Amino acid sequence: MDIIQAIIIGIVQGLTEFLPVSSSAHLIFAQNALGVESSLAFDVFLHLGSLIAVLWFFRADIIRMIQAFLLSIGDIIQHRFKEGFYSDPYKRLVWYVIIATIPVGLVGVLFESQVESLFAGALYVPAFFLFVTGTILYLSQRMNSGEVDLSNLSLKESIFMGLGQACAILPGLSRSGTTIAAGLVIGLDKEFAAKFSFILSIPAILGAFVVQLKDIGTITDFNALAVLFGFLAALISGYLAIKWLLELIQKRSLDIFAYYCWIVGMIVFMGSITHLF
Question: Contact 197/161 with Cβ under 8 angstroms?
């Protein structure tokens, strides 16, 4: 993989990790189109770039969540967790994110081999699930915007979005699209649904990064410059994708992404079954 190819794939990763169009599907499509195969080291740094992008964008919230988590541990030690939990929305948020991450962790551990086989399969698999992503997005935009936000978020809504994230482990099923749609279905405010979706992605991306990182010591042959430029491309494009989607969802619907998923999914699906790709 050369530097130009690395930048292209890094941009694809950064944009599609946070836009509701499925990063897994687009990475498979991009690598097939460019005729390259991603290395473990490259994948690790792509995830690191996406992780830094979301951490930096929500840095103020992340700092407050870390502080709230440490305070809640103190509350547990002093046997006043319940009182502190209900008085501070960031204490609730940090624990809800932890609990909502459990489903995707369980799916990743229990069905790792099955999921890997789907990623290694024919292109019509991610193409089909990309079409499903578009349908989920389109239907969710027909829902009335709810009033649930940080001040009144409950465990029920958090777990429902966590289940959506667990489903999105399938190639082609967008993580951000599925979780945002789940939030809208269960009554979250549009902007907060997107924000909670992005924050919920942090432990999921971190988990993928750690799982891959443990094997990176076995890699001896990789293009360090390509890895660096891919990382920077994923970081910058990921940050811009978050910023754009949060601005877009306040003013307009996400129907454009539904149409995009349908079109791309159909093109790749038809191309794969007729052996054009």
Answer: yes
